[in-house]
Amino acid sequence: MGIIRKSADWAEDRTGIAAAIKPILDHKVPRTDWKSGWWYVFGSAVLVAFIVQVITGIALATSYVSSSGEAYNSLKYITNEAFLGNFMRGVHYFGASAMVLFVGAHMLHVYLIGAYKFPREMQWLSGVVLLLLTLAMGFTGQLLRWDQNAVWSVVVGASQASRTPFIGNILSQFILAGNTLGGATLSRFFSFHVFFIPALVFGFIGFHLYLVIRNGVSEPPEIGKAVDPKTYRKEYHELLEKDGVPFWPDALWRDAVFAVILIVGVAILAIIFGPPLLDNPPDPSILRAAPRPDWYLLWYFAVLALVPPGITTFVILLFPLVGFAALFVLPIFANKGERHPLRRPWAMGIVLMIVISIITLWIAGDAEPWSPKIDAQPLPIQVVASKDPGVVSGAQLFNSKGCEYCHRVGEYGGVRGPNLTNVGSRLNHEQLTVRILNGGNGMPQYGNNLKPGELNSLLAFLESRKGQNDKPVVADATNNQK
Amino acid sequence: MSKDTDIRINPMVRDEATAPLEPLPGIPEHVPTDYHTPTVDTPQDISRRKFLSKISLALSAAGGVVVAVPVVGFIIGPLIHTQNQNDVNLLWQSVYTNDHRGETNPQEFKLDQMKVGDTLQVNFKDPSSLAWAGVVANSAAWLRRESETQLIAYSVNCTHLGCPVSWLPDAGLFMCPCHGGVYYQNGDVAAGPPPNALPRYETRVVDGKIQLKAIGIQLTQ
Known about the structure:
A: elongated
């Protein structure tokens, strides 16, 4: 017997690890074919992404300084000077993206095939907790990128917490670590991102996996085969006896293949795109800022912009609460019956609706049509297309008074308000005057802000906007969709 | 085991735990390492074990509380102990303006440097900040000289979700970069989702120098 074999036998005799693991590797799981089997890799993909995050996170922590005053400089050092630092940040960013993405995919798959039903309710519940924790990691991680975007994101987070009845002030002070941003703010998020939340993630992943072994991997759903808690365990057992395959390697090989694809994919993205660029320094006195969440929360950013102002507080507080409450009670109220998606039209409809909503909100969050375009440039001469001095000075006022931030003329200006390319053929002198002076429908009143001469120039400019075609309404609609 | 002796097998022991392990290939024949053999308990044993279980759990809980209470207290410390907050005089901060390059002038900003009708950004230090806060200790406000005697210092935080509003002098409006909130020059909401007017800081003039009361970020409750 070789020395290696002898050592291994000695270690096994003293620890019994192989004896403990072998039954897990050998335990039978339902046979899957080429079509159903690959859907099962999402769960392990999340685990792989998490491991990548732990490893790259530890590496980054060796150079990151978790001090409000120094973090930004240490990030600049990691990004621009440290050997492989830029790559490491890139991997950590795309690893986080992969983790969020595959948590979503895993959850949708489990929901669609009804795998959360009896006896796997606790797997679903622990999974919902892991979803929450993953989003918390995403948010706190974005804040550790301690630039201008991060400090304002902390303020936005504290603002949302602040609207909670009774304890809003306490919550927001807890988030800020005081009554404003300061030295304690980042240390707090660092501790949560690096110690507290990951510890919870480890614990819940352990619990989640233990339950997978205990209750078995769910079999691919069959039309007409409903889950009955009275008989399910027996049927599942018989299925495994008759046609089960060992977990390793018959099921796990696909996870291994996908794990490699994921890791290589993350590395390639990190090389090609690199980590998110650092914004301005985290100086709250630099007010030229446009805080945005990373992509995985951008859809929620759009929600916050688009809800009617009167119900903002309800949405901020109740939307996440109701959403997660629904996820929590789902397996308690719907733990039996058909599993196949074709027999669960409501489930299919809900998934479709959520996916379409989130994609739409993503697009909206990226385009942000609600935001005034503060950097709009003055209209060029060919757009003004007039030598009339009143029209020309009106065009200048159109930019300087901020009209152009919200209104489009030709290809210029924001899209918050109506397109004014052809407003001259739509509204007459009096109508234009009333709108400018009184505002309304989301437009500020300009009554106190315009001198009579300025008003006349602006009117002259707007009345000259007759456009080239006779269908201003159609032109408006197409332009607003951009 | 007879019924009348009240001696029983310890119910904590699982049957399968006592079953011998199957030898694994490649592992030498070993003596079982599973010591879960049934014990024979007398009533005194059972009573003693119950007592020991209770006392162990109680002691563990007490130990947990001893650690947890100060830890929780430490974490929520910023809520309880906001340093300097009790001393109102420390909250009054001088303000500074940015020069044309965007850098902060080292000289305190004075009232006579400001024309009536001006609205400009002033910077100040957060009085409660810690030594390692660095640039994060900087704060800003929008200062407006309404008349010869009246100064207004607006919070830069939009009342919708706290993003920093910018003053657009020609348009005479404050605009928020996040969700399109717009305010008039008096701080009232002009458009967009903000629920309230811009909050204000108290101001005062000491020896010609403008000061504001830095009470922290004022968020919509």
